Structures are given as C-alpha cells and as structure tokens.
C-alpha cells in the first residue's frame, strides 16, 4: 500500500517528535536557568554549564549520528516491504555505537582539564567545568544507547515511545534539579552545580532503561547479537561516518563560538550560554517536522513514490516555517522576561539582550535548514550533508567569525556568523532537493 502524505500523516509523527525533541534542550535549559540563579558563584557556574554543555553536545551529536543512519535504513526497508531482512541489524549497530562511546569517554576523562583550557576556561570557571563534567560524562553512553533505540522507532514510523522516554527524562531532570541544586531544608544539603550534574545523570539512566524495555516489548527487534555481521552494517557505518564528519564540522562551529565568547569575558560567555540554549530549544522544537520528514521520506524512497516525496517536502517546510514564525513572535513579545528566566546578573542580561534580536531573525532560516536536513537524512544523502557542512563551516562560518574578531564586533560577530552559516546550509539543501527530485516527479 502506497503512503499518502497528509496533514494527519505528518503530524502523527511530528507532534510526538517535537515533544521528544525539546526534552533534550529542556535538560540543558533547566540546568542553565537553575544554575544561573545559584546564590554562590552563579555567573561562574553558568559559564561552566555552557562550556561543558557545548563539549558534551559535540560528543553526543558526533557519535549519535548512528540514530539517523538506523532510522534511514529501517524506514527504507519498511517502505520496500523487506523489514525482516534487517532483524539482526539494530543490535549490531547499537553495540558498535556503545563500544565507540566507551572508548571516547575513557579517552576524555583523563585529559578533561586540558580540554576545557583549550576552550579558554580558567580559574574558578575551569574548576567548575571539571567538577560538572566528571559527573555528567558517565551519562554519555546511556544517551547514545537511547538515541539509537529512538532511531529504530523513527524508522518504524513511531515517535510515540521516544516521546514518552524524552518527556519522562525531562520532567525527572527538572524535579531533581530543584532538589539537588537548592536542597531540601533539614533533609538534603544544597549541592549547587554538582547537584545539577547528578540530576542529569540520573535522568539519562532512567531514559536508557525505558528505551531498553520499549525496544524489547514494542518491536520485533532484540538486543541479542547474531552473527555473521549483517551486510547492511557496512552501509550503516558508511552513512554514520559521513554524519560523524558532518557533526564534527557542525560542532567545530559551535565550539569555536563558545571559545570566542569565553575569551570575551564571564558576562559574554554567560550571555552566549543563554542564547545558545534558546537557539537549541527552538532548533529541536522545529526539528519535530524534520524528524517526520526523515521517517516518511525514507519510506517513500523505498516505495519509489517521488510525487508524494515532493509533496512531503513542501508540507513539512510550510509547517516548519509556521512553527518558527510562532516562536519568533513569542521571543519578540517576551524579549525581556526570557532573559530573566536564566539570570539576574545585570551585565549578563544586558549583553544577552544586545544580541537576542539576531537569534530571533535567524529562526525562519534555521527552520528551512533543519527541515531539509531531516529529509536528506531519511533519503540517505549523507555524503551531500557532509560536504555542505564542511563548506559552510570552514569556508563561511570560520572566516566570518574571525573577521568579526578582527573588527571587534564582540558577541555580535559570533551570532552574525552563526546566522549566515545556517543560511548557507538551508539554501544549498533546497537547491539540491529541487535539482534531484523535481525531474523524477515530472516523469
């Protein structure tokens, strides 16, 4: 039976995916808001959360790309009616991913101080970075496991169970943040920054346990390793490697932005931390439609249903743009209150408000980039995604970033570079999609 793209079809996947997607930035935003209001060294703690959060996001999104590769292969086999042919593949992919995550974890634990010094952390901020990271890093393999399982569900056109996992983790993290950071009178002493790290780690553990249970009870896949190695594992690894390179170049941009903001001073990295968390929150909010596009496009490609694929692209782009415009209006209306959620430090807030408008202007641009990014992942176009990120990062973002530094644009230069970076990403993806799939529709 051919897939018909409709408002209902898309939103059945997009709404749960949006709820699941915003859970991850909610974890970071919760840490940022609560830590930013710590009565002792709030600004330094906020800076540490921003630096560590950026580095951990890099690790997670580099190795977490297996999720997209799994989703693409599962959805394509679902569309072609050959799902039974890959029954042993998810377990092999998940174990490979876990092995890589443990290797990376152990390789960073012993050089953590040097890593954060490279990001311009020093003094009290460096101490807090090490304290926060030494706890949160142990949740890294758990998060990658959860992501891989979510990839299987995405390929099966099911975003409901990932939504339950993500919402449970987010709600639990918020509750534990308040308990551990601020303490409970006569019961639990305030743990401040360390408490925020423990809250995140416990939440990640619960999410991984839920993912494990749902995979075994809600799908026909298992985590029992079967040999020989599945033939599709080679394609999955190839897709993942291209996405690794892509994610590395993406995170080079984000980490260089953090590094430059840190070099400007405590108030600037504090302001940048607030801004980047709002940016990521909006990204994941819009990414619900990108996830729907990812899942459905792979299935349509498996069916060779190019007319519906073209319609899917138009619909998810429209819905993504509408979502981004609503977010833009909310940010404009609550321009001042949004900053106050994260910090009460006057200098941090003034710095943040000076660049917040650039972030807002970029939201519709981001929507187009994220939507087509999701479509291309579902279609298995990982090489093109890799090449575009390399070009956008090294030939566009980095030159603009350092022109801004030489011109003394401060935080303005960082956010101008990020906005143009996203414009190049989105524009090139739209062009490529039109060039490749419009002729197939016209046939």
Count of helical segments? Answer: 17
Tell me the domain tally.
1
Low-confidence stretches are: none
Structural class: mainly alpha
| Mean pLDDT over the residues | 88
> What is Rg?
21 Å
What does this structure look like?
With 443 residues, the protein is an all-alpha fold. The protein has one domain (7-442). Helix content is 84%, strand content 0%. It has 17 helices and no strands. α1 (7-36) runs antiparallel to α2, α2 crosses α6 and α3 (66-79) runs parallel beside α11 (266-303). The mean pLDDT is 88.
Keywords for this structure?
single chain, 84% helix, mainly alpha, 17 helices, 443 residues
Describe the structure concisely for a colleague.
The protein is mainly alpha-helical. The protein contains 17 helices and no strands. It has one domain.
Strand-helix topology:
Layout: H1 7-36, H2 42-63, H3 66-79, H4 89-109, H5 112-118, H6 123-136, H7 140-155, H8 160-182, H9 193-218, H10 231-264, H11 266-303, H12 306-333, H13 335-342, H14 346-361, H15 363-378, H16 382-406, H17 411-442
Helix pairs in contact: 1-2, 1-8, 1-9, 1-11, 2-6, 2-10, 2-11, 3-7, 3-10, 3-11, 4-7, 5-6, 6-9, 7-9, 8-9, 10-11, 10-16, 10-17, 11-12, 11-14, 11-15, 12-15, 12-17, 13-14, 14-17, 15-17, 16-17
